[in-house]
């Protein structure tokens, strides 16, 4: 075992990892990366097929991001945001607001524009900020007797701070902490593949394409909003959602139009919308077709693809292109104004972080936004989106593939025991983990969500590399789950959608 691996085993406790299993084998120790490639201490190279847990946008060791970081380091690494402002944080805030309201983003003139930026450290804290602001804004606008309550989706995951955990509804992750949490409500997610209202029999296609329903998932939300008003005497403070696709829930995509309908319901019920775009932001959910000709008109956020303007926009992960921890919560002037007052009124937002608005992070994020607005980046994202759409259908030849869900540059492949019945693997069988380990042995790194294999490569990944990733996944399934039939299934394979 390499000395660094021994040190890891001796001292490091890894997140979301059963350490008993971890200690049984030598871990992959990464020492370098360039573009979509990572290299370990033994000199082996791997394609980074999940962008280092969904953070890396342009590839590792990008020269422009490196240069931006070095330029800022020559000036100053950090100064406090408590009582002081700084250059890159001010410039970045203006650019984030601009990105949220680019031409054609669909913001309705009647709705408040996102105009204020509160910085924090990661996705969990971005949600914590939105949660606290929405809670106090509701109390200040509805009166001190108000008891703000929040609504989120089944399978929701919004981070690991206690407020964010309270919004989560994944028992495996969240049940342990229930005694520490405040109560939130939940409604069904639009999980077309396993929706009880979807009357369609399984096909070899994304379940959104062949679903047979009457949008009952929307009716369920409408009834819950009305029940809250009737039973508690006031609307929900906010509805929290990952737009277009839920990440840690299992890469569950929403059918086109769902978010727009939900936003309309929330307006009718005077309920705020908190958009958790920690994973979906910065172009990750892809481009509309046909794509815009001008890079600065390309939408960067999932909400924009459905012309929805949230009251809070929570950003992290790809904000710095995968370089440094940084998060931002955007909100409206209306929310901001509710915290203005004389000093002795103590209406201040009493929340903050030691590294709020850190200069190294904000300077790198600023360059990341400039990169996203280049023609080269626009072409790379479109090429990757199309390469995934053209390559993924080969996976229907694998009998254990039940659903393939692509939303732009995000893919979830759900593994099942029998695709004709959608029978799942028991989580204790570790089907997803075993497949990902077999992929790693063949030079492709990703991490499963239960029985769902996630593919979310950096934007610089080429079509040839996408083919390698998909072929590796097929071989890994054959090795760990059994051989596929030589004959393609007789069921019709529908043409995929790259949205």
CATH C-level label of the largest domain: Alpha Beta
Distance between the termini: 44 Å
Largest sheet: 7 strands, mixed
Mean pLDDT: 94
- When the domains are counted, the total is 2
Overall number of strands: 17
Describe the structure.
This protein folds into 2 domains: 3-62 and 377-481, Aspartate Aminotransferase, domain 1, CATH 3.90.1150; 72-374, Aspartate Aminotransferase, domain 2, CATH 3.40.640. 34% of the residues lie in helices and 15% in strands. The protein is built from 16 helices and 17 strands. The chain has helices at residues 3-11, 19-22, 51-54, 63-73, 87-100, 123-142, 162-166, 171-174, 207-210, 216-232, 258-268, 333-337, 359-372, 375-391, 431-441, 463-481; strands at 30-34, 37-40, 45-48, 114-120, 150-153, 185-187, 238-241, 245-246, 252-253, 272-276, 312-315, 327-332, 401-407, 410-418, 423-424, 444-445, 452-455. The strands form 4 sheets. The chain has a 7-stranded mixed sheet with strand order 4-12-11-10-7-5-6, with helices on both faces. α5 packs parallel to α13 (359-372) and α10 packs parallel to α11 (258-268). The two termini are 44 Å apart.
């Amino acid at each position: 075992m390499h000395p660094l691996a021994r040190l890891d085993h001796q001292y490091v406790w890894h997140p979301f990892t059963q350490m008993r299993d971890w200690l049984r084998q030598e871990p992959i120790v990464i020492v370098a990366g360039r573009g979509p490639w990572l290299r370990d201490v033994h000199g082996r190279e791997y394609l980074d097929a999940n962008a280092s847990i969904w953070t890396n946008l342009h590839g590792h060791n990008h020269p422009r991001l490196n240069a931006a970081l070095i330029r800022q380091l020559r000036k100053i690494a950090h100064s406090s945001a408590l009582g002081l402002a700084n250059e890159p944080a001010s410039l970045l805030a203006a650019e984030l607001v601009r990105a949220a309201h680019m031409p054609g983003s669909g913001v309705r003139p009647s709705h408040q524009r996102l105009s204020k930026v509160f910085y924090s450290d990661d996705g969990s804290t971005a949600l914590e900020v939105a949660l606290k602001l929405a809670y106090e804004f509701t109390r200040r606008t509805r009166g001190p007797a108000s008891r703000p309550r929040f609504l989120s989706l089944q399978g929701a995951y919004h981070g690991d701070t206690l407020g964010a955990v309270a919004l989560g509804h994944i028992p495996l992750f969240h049940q342990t902490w229930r005694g520490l949490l405040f109560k939130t409500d939940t409604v069904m997610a639009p999980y077309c593949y396993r929706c009880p209202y979807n009357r369609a029999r399984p096909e070899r296609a994304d379940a959104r394409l062949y679903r047979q329903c009457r949008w009952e998932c929307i009716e369920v939300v409408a009834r819950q909003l009305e029940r809250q008003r009737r039973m508690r005497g006031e609307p929900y403070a906010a509805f929290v959602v990952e737009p277009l696709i839920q990440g840690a829930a299992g890469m569950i995509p929403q059918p086109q139009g769902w978010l727009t309908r939900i936003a309309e319901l929330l307006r009718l019920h005077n309920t705020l919308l908190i958009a958790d775009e920690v994973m979906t932001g910065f172009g990750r959910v892809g481009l509309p077709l046909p794509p815009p000709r001008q890079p600065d008109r390309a939408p960067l956020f999932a909400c924009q693809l459905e012309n929805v303007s949230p009251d809070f926009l929570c950003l992290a992960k790809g904000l710095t292109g995968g370089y440094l921890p940084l998060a931002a919560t955007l909100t409206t002037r209306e929310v901001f104004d509710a915290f203005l007052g004389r000093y002795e009124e103590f209406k201040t937002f009493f929340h903050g972080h030691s590294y709020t608005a850190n200069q190294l992070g904000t300077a790198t994020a600023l360059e990341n936004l400039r990169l996203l607005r280049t023609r080269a980046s626009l072409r790379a994202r479109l090429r990757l989106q199309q390469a995934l759409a053209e390559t993924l259908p080969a996976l229907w030849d694998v009998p254990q593939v039940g659903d393939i869900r692509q939303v732009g540059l995000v893919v979830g492949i759900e593994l099942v025991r029998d695709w004709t019945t959608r029978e799942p693997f028991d989580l204790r069988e570790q089907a997803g983990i075993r497949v990902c380990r077999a992929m790693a042995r063949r030079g492709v790194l990703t991490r499963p969500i239960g029985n769902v294999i996630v593919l979310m490569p950096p934007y610089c990944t080429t079509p040839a590399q996408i083919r390698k990733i998909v072929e590796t996944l097929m071989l890994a399934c054959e090795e760990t789950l059994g051989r596929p039939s030589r004959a393609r299934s007789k069921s019709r394979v529908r043409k995929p959608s790259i949205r």
